[in-house]
Specification:
- Keywords: Ligase.
- Pfam families: Amidase.
- The chain is of the alpha/beta class.
- The chain has one domain: Amidase signature (AS) enzymes, CATH 3.90.1300.
- Helices cover 42% and strands 12% of the residues.
- The protein is built from 19 helices and 13 strands.
- The strands form two sheets. An eleven-stranded mixed sheet has the order 1-3-2-6-8-7-12-13-11-9-10, sandwiched between helices.
- Helix 6 links the parallel strand 2 and strand 3.
- The chain is globular and about 70 Å long.
């Protein structure tokens, strides 16, 4: 353990104990209603990819109808959420009409089936995190200094989704350079959580989380180097999957890195309200060869999966961390109990040694020398001093950079406040943990574990959650697949859930357990009740 880092954690924990009750009682008194997102009125917005694809194939639905439904929903909620950076609605409608023409041109049901085998997402709308590159669209990634930058080509994962027939509607908001768990920039302003307008949707896939949580996206593509898919998924009550390291190409992503091992840490993955859609989306994003490696087409026998669960870090490490919220602990226990009733072997497990989880997690970020910095320049000497000066300027509103991004910059410039030798030592320790987790989970085991310790924090107070980011970041360092599973809304109306983690390249196990938990506990809950009489007639397929 590193004393300085742990003292920071203790200071944040003490401040949280002092400040949180004051915020609750005096600064943010409870209100009877915290969201103004309009209720969903179109039943198409409540259907999964599987259901919509079936209707498109049978010509009961047109892509134009579906795309228009999502455009209408986006336009009705974005004035509240500020999650959209740039839209392409007219182009999307033209692409939807082209998809309808392709389907109409099929002379037989067999021809339609073949068309959808070749293009499994044909006619289905999607949203794209700005950092993942959508050709011709803004590629500023929240930076004032990149405000005129456009993507000159689709990112590799985006290209695969479009080749499969998906229709991009927009690019969604990110923090500056994706360097924050709160989506709030000088260029684009603050994105809002659809469940509580006083709270953040998270980051760095905050725009995706917000739109998906509000029912304004069928599915989105996010990226994750330290929790950037899973944190917004928790805060906004949706499913998000961080794939195993290296199985989904991040070519075209910004920020990028010259480090050939970056795809072990940085991944792109799907975000959606429907767990049943995750496997199909991952198969497309991973590509044929990697899908075979992940065995995504093989059926998974649920009762053969061994389930381990833990309610947080243990020992001294657990005491130093802020406690995990009771709703999250209870959700893990409820899920474990449910899976046990289905005949699965369920064990509250002693995890491989994670006493240095903070150090190992931050070393993974500190070791990314090849990744772009905010404050670039020919002279590397004095960059720590320059970063500190910019942080001070940002605190008094005089910097062109956001404070959170600068704090991330400082963390990298200082080797996470460790010596380079210590960083290498903890990176080596993390490599040992990969083997230990692989042995624990094998090819038929999953771990239920908190995604983060708390539901969505209030704007500007994400620092209390930031210092628990090793809950997510450690699994980037280990390269393990993780699916965030929403489990309901707490007494404040905030989403909560937890992570399902598997061994390397065992993504299918996470996805199978997520589908079962969605079936049993309902998955995504809308921010406000539906006003759709036909809802009772919709059958959710499993």
């Amino acid at each position: 353990m590193e004393i300085f880092l742990r003292l920071l954690l203790i200071v944040v924990k003490v401040l949280s104990w002092i400040i949180s009750p004051i915020l609750d009682k005096f600064v943010y008194p409870q209100k009877p209603k915290r969201t103004q997102v309009p209720p969903i009125k179109n039943p198409l917005l409540l259907l999964s990819i599987q259901e919509l694809r079936s209707r498109l194939r049978s010509r009961q639905l047109t892509s134009v109808e579906l795309v228009k439904a999502y455009i209408d929903r986006i336009e009705s909620v974005n004035s509240h959420l500020n999650a959209l950076i740039e839209s392409r609605f007219p182009a999307a409608l033209k692409e939807a009409q082209h998809a309808d023409d392709l389907i109409a041109g099929c002379a037989s049901p067999e021809a339609v089936e073949k068309l959808f085998e070749e293009r499994p997402l044909l006619g289905l709308p999607m949203t794209v995190k700005e950092s993942c590159a959508l050709e011709g669209m803004t590629f500023s990634v929240g930076s004032l200094f990149r405000k005129n930058v456009k993507a000159n080509a689709d990112g590799e994962a985006v290209k695969k989704l479009r080749t499969a027939g998906a229709i991009p509607l927009l690019v969604s908001a990110t923090p500056e350079y994706c360097f924050s768990i709160e989506t709030d920039t000088f260029l684009n302003g603050r994105s809002i959580n659809p469940y509580d307008f006083e709270r953040t949707p998270g980051g760095s896939s905050g725009g995706e989380g917000s739109l998906n949580g509000a029912g304004a996206s069928l599915f989105g593509i996010g990226s994750d180097i330290g929790g950037s898919i899973r944190i917004p998924s928790q805060y906004c009550g949706i499913f998000g999957h961080k794939p195993s390291g290296g199985v989904v190409s991040v070519k075209g992503h910004f920020p990028d890195s010259s480090d050939p091992g970056i795809e072990h840490y940085l991944v792109e993955g799907p975000m959606t309200r429907f767990a049943v859609d995750l496997n199909d989306l991952l198969r497309v994003m991973a590509g044929q060869e990697n899908s075979k490696k992940l065995r995504l087409t093989e059926p998974v026998q649920l009762n053969k999966i061994k389930v381990h669960y833990a309610l947080g870090f243990d020992g001294l490490n657990g005491l130093i961390h802020m406690p995990v919220d009771e709703s999250i602990r209870n959700a893990i226990c409820r899920a474990a109990t449910h899976l046990k009733t289905l005949g699965l072997e369920v064990t509250q497990s002693q995890l491989p040694n994670l006493s240095n989880s903070v150090e190992m997690a931050l070393s993974g970020i500190a070791g990314q020398d090849g990744m772009v910095y905010l404050l670039e320049g020919p002279e590397e000497s004095g960059k720590v001093r320059q970063t500190l000066w910019e942080i001070l300027r940002s605190l008094v509103g005089q910097s062109s950079y956001t404070t959170n991004a600068l704090m991330f910059e400082l963390l990298r410039r200082t080797n996470a406040f460790m010596t380079r030798a210590k960083v290498n030592q903890y990176l080596e320790e993390s490599r040992l943990r990969i083997g230990e987790f692989s042995k624990l989970l094998g090819d038929n085991g999953v771990l239920l574990f908190p995604t983060l310790n708390l539901p969505a924090p209030r704007h500007k107070w994400s620092v209390f959650s930031l210092w628990g980011v090793d809950y997510t970041l450690i699994f980037n360092v280990l390269g393990l697949p993780v699916t965030h599973v929403p489990m309901g809304l707490d007494e404040r109306g905030l989403p909560y859930g937890f992570s399902v983690i598997a061994g390397p390249n065992q993504d299918r196990l996470c996805l199978r357990v997520a589908v079962e938990l969605e079936r049993a506990f309902g998955g995504w809950k809308p921010p406000v009740p539906h006003e759709i009489n036909e809802l009772k007639d919709i059958v959710y397929p499993f």
